[in-house]
Design brief:
Elements (H helix, E strand, L loop, with lengths): L21 H24 L22 E11 L7 E9 L6 E10 L8 E8 L9 E4 L1 H8 L5 E9 L5 E8 L8 E7 L11 E6 L10 E3 L4 E2 L5 E7 L5 E7 L5 E6 L6 E8 L5 E7 L7 E5 L7 E3 L12 E5 L2 E6 L8 E7 L5 E9 L6 E9 L2 E8 L3 E11 L3
Length: 405
């Protein structure tokens, strides 16, 4: 039974049902079910399958002395689809060398977050013109529901990945009843139907099989970590009742291979992965309550086992962060405040624990929002995209300049 396709019903013959209006009783049943899902999730979290250790292909972290400067080489707004007032949660991916564009971007856009008209928008950065192509919609909930065979109420965070065969994959959050807490992660991939490679079409592949209980309450936000064998580690999170980060491993073709929990804490969301070596990685997480800091965990066996580490000495206002290894330089983009999202910065580090702000991306007024960053290292440049006041997606591009001690 699929919860998004079959709404919960109540039984009028029960005396208890007569005490509540039908709609109220259905809501009660739903939240009782949600509580049950949460308990089951806690139990299964300690018995999840674990991905086998795998090498990660990266440049060694430069732990030498000296500082790093980020020199801006471009920036602006990514075009929005016509008559679309709101945008959020961008993602970036590199394109093949043969493509006329350097990178691709996707985000969700519509009247507002959670609105029925929200769709996934897509644009690419052209090499010759050095500008973004006009945005177009590539996924909508009606067509996606038809492909999958069950109803979708909302679309949310997209994440792009390019596999070893130069095919783009797209992971999208889709909800049924109950909002984001009952989301599932839907896997789409670039179609092989002969459509123009410059304007790819995406087709639904499957819901990621992350839980035996309808795969409920699993969401995605940050970019996957690509391994040397072409497989990927996709950072995801669970948020029904309790909130905790996990990672899913997919092989080079995108088939699911396992899941492992990152942190034992119950208030962390949206993990971002930073590889420091082949097997030692750090994860940075949004904290939904507590000290208003960026949480951190560490693995020394390529994601099989994780240990919680002390929170970073960096404030965070319950907002998404992004991390990557930029040619041996750890980079982290975040909101450096415990109260608001009106400032967004990129920091660099020598060890992934002590950070220095290297670029000021946005500084607004109280109440402004610059949030949900995405980062990509491609052709010796650091690309950053982010939500600009929920009106559009902004982008900036940097070169890295290393300075002597």
């Amino acid at each position: 039974m699929d919860l998004s396709a079959h709404p919960l019903s109540y039984h009028r013959a029960s005396p208890f049902c007569d005490l509540l209006p039908p709609l109220a009783f259905k809501h009660l049943l739903f939240w009782l079910g949600a509580l049950f899902v949460s308990v089951i999730a806690l139990l299964q979290a300690s018995h999840q399958s674990e991905p086998a250790p795998a090498r990660v292909s990266l440049n060694a972290i430069d732990s030498g002395s000296g500082s790093v400067r980020l020199v801006k080489s471009g920036g602006g707004e990514i075009p929005m689809p016509a008559n679309t007032p709101s945008a959020h949660a961008s993602t970036l991916a590199p394109l093949p060398a043969s493509h006329s564009s350097l990178i691709a971007a996707a985000w969700f856009a519509g009247e507002r977050e959670s609105a029925p008209d929200v769709r996934i928008a897509f644009s690419t950065f052209e090499k010759a013109a050095q500008r973004w192509t006009p945005a177009r919609f590539i996924v909508d909930r009606e067509s996606l529901a038809k492909e999958l065979g069950f109803g979708i109420r909302r679309l949310g965070n997209p994440v792009l990945w390019r596999d070893d065969d130069d095919r783009l994959h797209l992971f999208v959050v889709g909800t049924g009843i109950g909002g984001w807490a009952t989301s599932r992660i839907i896997h789409l991939q670039q179609s092989d139907d002969g459509t123009d490679a410059e304007h790819p079409r995406f087709e639904a592949r499957a819901v990621l099989p992350l839980s035996w209980l309808w795969n409920l309450s699993n969401l995605v936000r940050n970019a996957p970590l690509v391994l040397a064998d072409g497989a990927v580690v996709l950072p995801i999170y669970f948020e029904l009742g309790t909130k905790y980060p996990t990672l899913a491993r997919l092989d080079r073709a995108g088939s699911f291979r396992g899941i492992a929990r990152i942190s034992r804490k119950g208030n962390l969301l949206q993990p971002a992965l930073l590889p420091l070596s082949e097997h030692r990685w750090l994860a940075y997480m949004r904290m939904s309550g507590g000290t208003h800091r960026i949480a951190m965990a560490e693995t020394k066996d390529a994601g099989t086992n994780w240990q919680d580490r002390p929170d970073l000495d960096l404030p965070n206002p319950n907002a998404s962060v992004a991390a990557l290894n930029a040619n041996g330089v750890p980079a982290l983009t975040f909101n450096p405040s415990s109260t608001g999202r009106d400032r967004l910065v990129t920091a660099t580090s020598a060890d992934g624990e002590r950070w220095n702000i290297s670029a000021e991306l946005a500084l607004g007024q109280i109440g402004d929002e610059y949030s949900y960053p995405a980062m990509l290292w491609h052709e010796d440049e650091l690309w950053v995209s982010y939500t600009d006041r929920r009106r559009h997606i902004a982008w900036q591009r940097f070169t890295i300049v290393r300075q002597s001690p």
